[in-house]
Design brief:
Length: 404
């Protein structure tokens, strides 16, 4: 199992653990809410029965007792007659409650809209408690206490706060880890460029001496050796640029890609054929040494995917409406499962026994971070082949452009 798959497994385990904790919290809270709601309904029923006893009893002692029970109600309630007219309320906004005290000449303002809204809300929350008082049907409506209402929403607030905290922590740790990885990557790249410098200079000197000693100025093999040394120079230059913002210059995309394909094709098996096609007029901002590295990684990936004979096709096209350039690299290799379309760009992912799994990861970084473009698996079918697509901004928008 590669490191990426191990990291992915741990993410799933932690996510499952978080789901278990969240589910447990919600279940336990619902259990508490259910018990408290049952207790509140019991109290409402006791209150309703005490009111019935008050109105039906002439016993002063019993009257005082039932008043005490009545006043113990902790939930807001409204009492109506059978026609729905409000007769009594408890626990509501005292500034809008109707209280008629003619003995002292005091009458508080009554807000009918407020009571209608409260009554409608209570009807939605709970079934009414039905009573017969003085031969008439009486209905007692009530709603949850403020404590129960807060308890109902508390787990969601709690989970939201936890989720925000975890997201912030994950973002902070990921940013820190990425920064550390970038520092290691930059340091390794610059040290590699430094180490390559001396032997490359020596090889160039030896090739010049070989030309003079053996009069091999026009020798094809020596010319190819010289090309390879120059390529090593470019590789060293690539590594030296890591960590600094590369300079992008306008280049013909077709020409740049074709130059590298021509260099690459003579260095792989003759069983693999190469084909270039597309619009030669499209231009984009490129850093040629880094972009050659991108094409190199895609071509190497295509070669490794082909078992025996096969072909690699590179097509350059554009979209005039979106002002984009497309570079499609298609091989006839073993293909990629659809579930792995994103995974192939993760560091450490590889299907080869020997390999670091960094090629496509570096390719994605160079396209997105340095060339402000995109790269993705456009299409793939297991056993038939794969097409990778690079999308860049077209810096030349004219009538010669084709639409794809």
């Amino acid at each position: 199992m590669n490191p990426y798959q191990q990291k992915k497994r741990w993410k799933y385990l932690l996510l499952a653990f978080a789901v278990v904790i969240a589910s447990g919290s919600l279940i336990y809270t619902r259990y508490l809410v259910k018990n408290i709601a049952r207790s509140e309904r019991t109290r409402a029923q006791v209150w309703a029965m005490s009111m019935r006893q008050i109105l039906n009893s002439d016993d002063n002692d019993f009257l005082q007792y039932t008043i005490a029970v009545r006043d113990s109600l902790i939930v807001p309630a409204i009492v109506t007659d059978g026609k729905g007219d409000i007769r009594l309320s408890r626990g509501l906004d005292t500034t809008k409650t109707f209280i008629d005290l003619p003995s002292v000449g005091n009458k508080k303002k009554y807000d009918p809209d407020y009571f209608k809204a409260e009554l409608a809300y209570m009807k939605k929350q709970h079934e009414p408690i039905k009573l017969q008082i003085l031969g008439e049907e009486t209905l007692v409506f009530y709603k949850d206490s403020p404590l129960l209402q807060q308890l109902r929403i508390f787990p969601y607030i709690q989970l939201t706060v936890i989720a925000i905290f975890l997201l912030m922590a994950y973002t902070a740790f990921s940013s820190s880890r990425k920064s550390e990885q970038d520092q290691v990557w930059v340091g390794l790249a610059k040290e590699t460029a430094h180490q390559l410098g001396t032997p490359i200079s020596s090889l160039m000197a030896w090739i010049e001496l070989m030309k003079e000693k053996f009069n091999a100025e026009d020798d094809v093999l020596v010319a190819e050796m010289e090309n390879d040394v120059k390529r090593l120079e470019i590789v060293a230059d690539r590594f030296s640029k890591i960590g600094s913002k590369p300079v992008l210059e306008e280049h013909g995309v077709y020409e740049v890609v074709k130059d590298y394909v021509d260099y690459f094709r003579v260095r792989v098996s003759k069983n693999i054929s190469f084909e270039m096609s597309g619009n030669p007029h499209l231009k984009a901002g490129l850093n040629v040494p880094l972009f050659d590295w991108v094409i190199e990684n895609l071509l190497k990936n295509a070669v490794n995917a082909i078992d025996g004979k096969g072909s690699i096709k590179v097509d350059i096209s554009g979209n005039k409406v979106k002002n984009q350039v497309f570079i499609d690299v298609t091989d006839t290799g073993k293909g990629i499962p659809r579930s792995k379309f994103d995974t192939v760009f993760q560091p450490g992912y590889t299907t080869r026994k020997r390999g670091w799994g960094l090629g496509l990861s570096l390719t994605k970084r160079m396209i997105e971070n340095y060339h402000n473009g995109q790269i993705f698996v456009k299409d793939s079918e297991v056993g038939k082949g794969t097409t990778f697509r690079i999308v860049l901004k077209n810096t030349r928008n004219d009538n010669k452009q084709t639409k794809s």
